[in-house]
Every structure is written in C-alpha cells, then in structure tokens.
Amino acid sequence: MSRFNPDRRRLLHALGASAALAGAAGIPGSSFAAAAAAGKPGKKLGRVVVIGAGFGGATAAKYLRKWSNGAIEVTLIERNKQFISCPASNEVLGGNRAYDSLVHSYDGLRKNWGIRLVHASVTGIDADRRRVRTDSAGDFEYDRLVLSPGFDFIYSGIEGYDAKAQETILHAWKAGPQTLALRKQLEDLPDGGTYVLSVPKAPYRCPPGPYERASQIAWYFKTHKPRSKVIVLDANDKVISKEKLFLGVWESDYKGILEYRPGWNVVAVDAVTNIVTSELGDKERGEVLNLLPPQRAADIARVAGVVNVNDRWADVDWISLESTAVKNIHILGDALQAAPLMPKSGHMANQHGKAAAAAIVEILSGREPQPTLMANTCYSLVDDKRAIHVDSVHRYNPEKKVPLVVEGSGGVSKEASVEEGLYTRAWATSIWKDSLS
Q1: Which residues of 248-273 are buried (b: 16+ CB within 10 A; e: fewer)?
Q2: The sheet that has 229-234: what strands, in order across it?
C-alpha cells in the first residue's frame, strides 16, 4: 500500500511523476534541489561530453546546464537527427497513435540551454586523455563523460537470425523505420493469420513492453481482424511485470485471440518457413514473426571499456553513477547493470540523467556528491483507451551500496481504466518535454 495520498498520487501520474516524485515532491534525501542551487552564473566549472541523446543523455545534458547555471560546458553527441520515442510506439502498432507523434526535435536543448549538439557517430574513447573521437566532427575533450548508449541485440542468441532474416523478421524494439514496417506487416496480414511475439529472458529494455505490445495488437485484431491470433512466446517463467493485470485483461478481453506460453525460449528461426524453435525443440509458425533477441549494453560501452558485468552490462557507483571500471565516465539507462527491482525504462533513464547531472555539478564544484532518490512509473495501454501502471521509489542503501525500493512507495493499478489511459498519454507528453525542451 502506498504511503502517498491517493489524490496526490493521481496528480503525480498526470504530471508524469518524473520531476515531481524525485524533486518537487519534497521527498527527504533528494539532492536534485541542492544541485539546482550549486552553480554560480559566470563561473566556469568544466567540460562535459554526453554520448547518446535518449531519455538519459538528453536529460543529463539539460540538467547539467540548468543546475550549473550555465557554468558547465556541455557537448551532446547523437548520431540521429531526431528523437524517436520507444515509449508509446506500441500504440502505433495497435493503430492508436500516429507515428509522427513519436518524433521530436533536439532544437529545444540547443536553444533553451545552450547545449552544443553534434550529430556524429562516436568511434573511440581515450579515457586516459579524456577525449572522444567521432567519425565526422573531430575530437572532443572532457572533464567528465556521460555515456548513455542504450542497448544492442545479441542476434547470435537466435540461430538463423542473420542479416538477411532481419530484413523481414523485425524486432521494432528501437522505435523508427521498423515500427512502421511492423505496422505494415500487421495491416497486410489476412484475417485469420497469426502474429508471433517472442520475449527474451530478463533483463531487457522495458519489462512490460512486450506484454503491452501483445495487448495492443490483440485489440487491433479484435477490432479489425477477429479471426487472427496473437501468440506470445515468453522465455521467462511468467509475465514479469504487472502479471495479474495483464493476465486478467487477456482473459476478459482477448480470450481466443491472445495465447500466452511461458517458458518458451526461442533459440532458432527459419526465415523461409517462418518457423521458430524453442530450446526444448517445440516449433511454432506465424505469418508475422516479431522476435526480441537477448540484449546487452551497446557497442560504444565496450569501446569505452565499461562493460564489466556478465560481459553484458556496466556497473556504477550508485551515488554518482560513475563507472566502477573507468574513472570520470558516468553511465545511464539501459546499459546499466540495474539495481534490484529497478527496470530498464525510459522513465528510469530520465532519473539516471538527473542523478548523474546532480553528482557532476557537485564534483566539478569541489564537493562530494550525495545519493539521490529515483522514481519510476511504467504505464501500459491494453486497448485504445484503458491502461495499467506500476511505480516505485528507489533510495540508496549505504550498506548494500545500491538503491533499494522504498518500502510502501510503489504499487500497481487495481484494474485497467480509461482514467489511467489519460495519465499514460499525459506521462508521455510530460517526459518528452522534461527531457527535450
């Protein structure tokens, strides 16, 4: 049961909760407000290079400038010219959102905060000389580096999922052209056809995301292709986020349309026959295959030398989010070895960005960084109007040296509702604005 007043909780949901829970809500122990007062106009504190302008990197760049009062010079390197949001992209697949609404400009970061925005790919990081190399924009020196690289797929985890197979068997787990391509496959699927979605073993980006996707596509089939079927092949033993809520919706709304199979780990695919095989030898075929391979920190994290957990993830000091492998590099978002019960989500990456920004402002000001509270809210739309959510607050534990969930801080929806559907879309608008403008 949450300690927060229910009316206040609903307000926080509507606001997106990101800044509200971690700063403006006045939760004891947060250092965001202290960081905001740390910078002094006119004083130069140092140079920070931020690699990756997703929810983590864009937020870090903005708040480094904001909380230092412009005293920190920030260069943001991002290879893509536009921000395309993965949160809310499942709605496009269900036909409930226009793709263009996911696409946002980075201009606000440059115009409003004086951030130097560089569109290039990073080719190397010299941690000893504190220098970043790019393919087309030259080199950049830094006092502190913020690395928000996102994730890459382990395609080798699925036999047959080679470059040729990837042309037609899509993941659409990085929003962009594949989102539109998968939507087109669903539109072209004849009524009576089968869509197969594979879920990798956790951890992966956005724990409830595959189950929301299955719900969105089941809604689309129920509304437009009632003889079609959704089959979810989950490598995990159960639905790993909002389990009772998703199972309840599937039973009440999509019975006969959506079939869920736990413990079904896809290890091979035949792109000619569209057949997938499990590690136990079971087979399934679908006219549309949507495979989510296992995931790891993106390649640039390996280049930086910060991947030091299971050859997949990067570990950090959770007070500053500084790498435990390489000094002066702070790591955010999906690339991290997550703390207990801390999801790899857009909301969490936004919180990482603020925590790292607060720590760097303190460090460059000659002070010791302090732990910050971080909050998470994950919404999932289960049809065109109703949604469910899970939320939590994470406080640094000095004994375990990781953030742990604050007892009584979080919870899940009682049931899917239209009200929460409104909160879901308000959350998206709020976090896009917080991160990008």
Answers
A1: ebbeebbeebbbbeeebbbbebbbee
A2: 258-261, 229-234, 194-199, 288-291
Nearest partner of 203 among 249, 245, 254, 151, judged by Cα: 151
Question: Cα 233 to chain center, whole Å?
Answer: 22
If you search the block for the tokens 């708040």, which residue do you land on?
Answer: 63
Task: Give which of 203, 284, 215 is closest to 247, Cα–Cα.
Answer: 215
CA–CA gap between residue 12 and residue 75 (Å, rounded): 32
* Residues ≥6 apart with Cβ < 8 Å to 428: 16, 85, 87, 88
Tens of pLDDT along the chain (437 residues) come to: 333 334 334 434 433 444 443 333 333 344 554 555 555 556 799 999 999 999 999 999 999 999 999 999 999 999 999 999 999 999 999 999 999 999 999 999 999 999 999 999 999 999 999 999 999 999 999 999 999 999 999 999 999 999 999 999 999 999 999 999 999 999 999 999 999 999 999 999 999 999 999 999 999 999 999 999 999 999 999 999 999 999 999 999 999 999 999 999 999 999 999 999 999 999 999 999 999 999 999 999 999 999 999 999 999 999 999 999 999 999 999 999 999 999 999 999 999 999 999 999 999 999 999 999 999 999 999 999 999 999 999 999 999 999 999 999 989 999 999 999 999 999 999 999 999 99
* Beta carbons of 39 and 362 less than 8 angstroms apart: no
Q: Phi-psi category of 304—alpha, beta or left, where left has phi over 0 and alpha has psi -120 to 50? A: alpha
Q: Which amino acid is residue 436, in one-letter code?
A: L
One-letter amino acid for residue 79 of the chain: R
**Would you say 172 and 182 are in contact if contact means Cβ atoms under 8 Å apart?**
yes
Residue 240's identity, in one-letter code, is: I
Of 309, 386, 318, the closest CA to residue 358 belongs to: 318
Provide the terminal-to-terminal Cα distance of the chain, rounded to the nearest Å: 35
Name the DSSP letter for residue 423. Answer: H
Contact 394, 373 (CB under 8 A): yes
Question: Domain 158-293 class?
Answer: alpha beta
User: 12, 8, 7, 43: which is closest to 377 by C-alpha?
Assistant: 12
- Report the Cα 1 to chain-centroid distance in Å: 26
Task: Enumerate the domain spans of the chain.
Answer: 158-293
How far, in Å, CA of 312 to CA of 151, rounded? 9
- Strands (E) located in 292-421: 295-297, 307-309, 313-314, 316-317, 322-323, 329-331, 374-381, 387-397, 402-405, 411-412
Residue 130 and residue 145 in contact, taking contact as beta carbons nearer than 8 Å: yes
**Backbone φ and ψ of 135, nearest 5°:** -80, -25
